[in-house]
Amino acid sequence: KETEVKKEEKKVTKEKISKSYASVISKNEGSVTLQDSKNIIKEANLNSEVQNGDMLEFVHKKDDKTDEFAGKHKVIAYDDKLPKAWDDEGIFKKYYNKAYEKIQKMSLDEKIAQILLVRYPDSNQAETLKSNKFGGYIFYAKDFKDKNYSDVQEMMNNLQSVSDIPILTAVDEEGGKVIRVSSNPKLSPTPFKSPRELYLEGGFDKIKEDTINKCNLLHDLGINLNLAPVVDVTTNPDDYMYARALGEDSEKTSEYAETVIKASKGLGVTYVLKHFPGYGNNSDTHTGSSIDNRSYEDILNNDLPPFQSGIKAGAEAVLVSHNIVNSVDGDNPASLSAKVHNLLRENLGFTGIIITDDLGMGAIDDTKEATVKAVLAGNDLIITTDWESSMAGIKEATDNGRISSHLIDKLALRIISWKYYMGILR
């Protein structure tokens, strides 16, 4: 009986203690920046010296209300196994070990390149890709101008043929105002309609049909990533985003997000929810900064549900806007804000890929510095036109210790795992 009591005491003690893991991704004066297995970014004041790149194990009581990444911790070594802080429950977890084997054979420059989605250059496109090994290219309407079906297929095949790791081939084929592919009558007999037009014509059935048609066209052309749907909630025709959105309330926009994501599954094209955490009635960030002064409750109750709905339906990626959302972080554009990214990770439980809006837009002043901030904010994939500045910024920050090389490892691992998940890497 005495032995049984002791066993029971041990069991109770064991149940109260748990462990958390996080890696040091950046050192600051008086504190460090940590990223945990849920990819949540936190500042921490630790009671002993740690080095950039250290993997930390925290022991804490489960009922402890204090920050789990403060106080008692120890440094644990990396080995040939997948580091514990990466061993999350993310949607790409199944492919982490395969991707980990790949990144161990890659140079730092190659890993950095994987996290860049680069604007398709005007010349030497295949040579530039072969030399730099980007994660992917993003294409605009002028890149398809005057090309027929076989021209585009040949273009995409040539790019994939020079890539050791298959690339993401991305467009914004939203329909209506933003059409990169169907603006060319040689590729599509008629341009794709806006979500608003489709909804008024035939409700969500029409939207489902349109999504399938888009996927079939894009996939046939060799395009595997569509930066759509726009799930911003806007009901005022005067709002900047109205012409690109459904134009209905939060509930209907949530159904729209679910419909598009579910309809796109299994058709060879991955869809991306945008623009987190929601544009609302804000202005265009292509030309300058936009300040969102709405309350936190308004954003939480009105703007986040469509993203939640899309994520629940299986969305693999979310694109973050350049809006400055005062109620969450008044100091940084959403795309460069760890607080905004944590909202997506913690509140919505999103484990997929977070993508910046294009860092070449007017709301961003300095691409080089913005790229570093974007990485430290929690983005997985950076859209950039000035890829030389983006590459240089990350490389310098890694060399001088501002960014941990282990963070670059993790980001490359997540992008490559995603490519396995998408089926473009086998």
From TrEMBL:
Q: Does the keyword Hydrolase apply?
A: yes
Q: Which Pfam families match?
A: Glyco_hydro_3
What GO MF terms are annotated?
beta-N-acetylhexosaminidase activity
- Location of the Glycoside hydrolase family 3 N-terminal domain: 108-417
Annotated membrane-spanning segments are none
Name the UniProt key words of this record, in alphabetical order.
Answer: Glycosidase, Hydrolase
Which reaction is the catalytic activity of this chain? Hydrolysis of terminal non-reducing N-acetyl-D-hexosamine residues in N-acetyl-beta-D-hexosaminides
Instruction: Write the Enzyme Commission number(s) for this entry.
Output: 3.2.1.52
Q: What class of enzyme is it?
A: hydrolase
| Superkingdom to which the source organism belongs | Bacteria
Instruction: Give GO BP annotations, semicolon-separated.
Output: carbohydrate metabolic process; peptidoglycan turnover
Task: Describe the family membership recorded for this protein in Swiss-Prot or TrEMBL.
Answer: Belongs to the glycosyl hydrolase 3 family.
Q: What is this protein called?
A: beta-N-acetylhexosaminidase
User: What is the organism of origin for this protein?
Assistant: Candidatus Coprosoma intestinipullorum
